[in-house]
Each structure stands twice: as structure tokens, then as C-alpha cells.
What we know:
With 372 residues, the chain is an alpha/beta fold. It has 14 helices and 13 strands. It has helices at 17-30, 72-82, 95-103, 124-140, 149-158, 182-186, 209-220, 237-246, 262-268, 283-290, 303-308, 320-335, 342-350, 354-370, and strands spanning 4-10, 35-41, 59-62, 87-90, 107-112, 143-146, 165-167, 195-200, 226-231, 253-257, 271-274, 295-298, 316-317. The chain has a 7-stranded parallel beta sheet, with helices on both faces. A 6-stranded parallel beta sheet has the order 10-9-8-11-12-13, sandwiched between helices. Helix 5 (149-158) links the parallel strand 6 (143-146) and strand 7 (165-167). The longest helix has 17 residues, at 124-140. It starts with a strand and ends with a helix.
Amino acid sequence: MQKTKIIHVVHDFLFGGIESYxxxxxxxxxxxxxxxxxxxxxxDENSVAxxxxxxxxxxxxxxxxxxxxxxxxxYRKVMQIxxxxxxxxxxxxxxxxxxxxxxxxxxxxxxxxxxGAVRREQSFYGKSKxxxxxxxxxxxxxxxxxxxxxxxxxxxxxxxxxxxNAVIYNGVGFNDSFDKDFAGNMFPEIxxxxxxxxxxxxxxxxxxxxxxxxxxxKFLSKYTDAKLLLVGDGSEMDSLKSLVSNLGIDDSVIFxxxxxxxxSFQSVMDVCVFPxxxxxxxxxxxxxxxxxxxxxxxxxxxxxRELVExxxxxxxVRDVDAMADKLYELAKKMRVGNDGxxxxxxxxxxxxxxxxxxxxxxxYYKSLELHD
Length: 372
């Protein structure tokens, strides 16, 4: 049987949702005997930020390409590499790179991982860039895969064509063998010490960790036996620490910094909160639900809202005050052992098992082959 050959094209191996999704997906695809999988990484091998993807056991090509790299030889090399494959699945938008993929005559699939940010006003440049991207996607891509209905709707409204335009949620390779004691050993103050509210996130603007801190401070005024566990790092770390100090809640907030053992920290949280705006998907929400944790998100959370409303719509809140009220409601229920949502969360999360998602991708690849 002839295999369908797929090469995933990425900018870098990073510490984020796209890298995690690709890490899980490639591992699942590797075991499908109908597929041959490779990766093209647009970085030098020794410069990749996160080496985890190196361990998945597929062919990886390294070719450093900057966002607006004008080195023609590099794009010729790209065309030479991808011409060996049936589909080039692009996970980052670089106009010149997409043009090279298109000219290679290999069918291009663009995977949507972004869906705008409603909190930022679009400049003329931003609007022009989106318009150019839409025209190029329509001209150069055989198909477009969106990681949520929210993402799909955003790009359809911008003008991306409907033909071969699909929604395939990101999948997760659930880790049931994590070190359950790791978080508690590193931060003993969270063990058996009241109600734990937490998040795992990059500390950047649109993740809105400041909303969580403000909401927790209001909640803490009514329920004092609680801790806020903030797992992650980023450009807003200093301002978030200042906010905690200004609110006078330093003794109730724990900043862990960047952690690799994220699941261990999620497992000690009683409630997980992700206040992002316009999140395209929200892999961490699924990971936390699989641990049985209630997940609180914002009404303008985009893909996060789309996920939570399918299982616990009452955990969608409109603002910081509503977040504080919801935390108080959950804390009171859990104090008396009244959390009846654990099984429904786990069952819902299982739909995103990466092997289920891999099968959906295989069907999508086959449907594109039928259109040739």
C-alpha cells in the first residue's frame, strides 16, 4: 500500500500550544502505517528553543529562514525538500515560505492557530496584512484546517475560501504517568493548605493573568483559606508580581516560574482558570479537564469558551467580579465534597485523545487526494 507522505512545516520548536499539538500529532501519525511523516523546521538544529520534538523519531530537516528572508537559495532548498511529499502542512504564516511551498507543486495545507485578538484595535497595517494573507491562502493552499469553530468563523469572515476548509480540534497525548509529588515537593506550602486556584500559562498580555490575580483577590476577601498558583513565565512577570504586591496578597500567591512538569502542578489545583481573550483553541483546558478539574474561562475567550460551553457552560464568566463569585461558589461546593462534574470532564476530554484526532486528519488527507 502506497503511503501518504506528509511534511509538517514549522518556524521553531517552542514552548507553547502549537509545539505541544505537533509533538502529540506527529507521534500518533508515526504509528499509522498509511502515513510517512517528516518535519521541516525553519531554525538551525542547534538553535531550537525546545528540543522535545527531536525525540519523536521522524525525519527532521533544519533550514534557518527568517520571517522576511530574501535568500533565494533557501527557498529553492525548501522546494527541493517538500517536493518529495504529497502534502506540506504549514503551521506558521510566512508569505515567502508559503510561496515557495506553492511553487514546489506539493499540495499545501495551512493549519490555523490564530484567530485575531479582539482587545487590540487593528491598525491599517494589520488589516492590510490579514487581507494579503487571505488572498495568498486562497491562491496557494489546497486546504485549510482550523483548530476550532471559532477560528474557522474568524477566517471565513475575513474571506478565506470554504472549499476544503475543515475544523479539526487539537489533540492531546494524555500523560497519566506524571510525578504526582513533584509540585508538592518543590512548593510544600501548596500541600494540604486550603483551596488551590491556578493557571499554567505564558505571562503575556492577551493571556490576561492579571484578570485572574484581580479575581482571586476579590475571592480571597470572602474565602481566606486559599492559594493562587501561577505556573509559567513571560514578559509580564514583573508587572504581575507588582500587581500582587499592590493588592496585598503576596502571602497567598505562588509564582513557580517556568516548569516542565506542568501536569503535576495542574493536578494539585482545585480549579484551573484561563482568562485569555480570543484564544484559538486552548489545549491546557483539555489537559486540566482530563484530570477532572473544573475550568473557568472568560466569555470572550474564543476557542476556550467553545470548549467549556460544551461541558460546563456555567463556568464561563463575563468579568473579574463574576470570576470571583464563581471561585467562591466552587470552593463552597468542594469544601463539602460536592463536585459532581469530574466524570463528565474526563469523558469530554477523552474526545481529544490524539489518536482520535489523528484519524480525523487521515480522513482529511484522503478527501484532498480525491479532489486531485
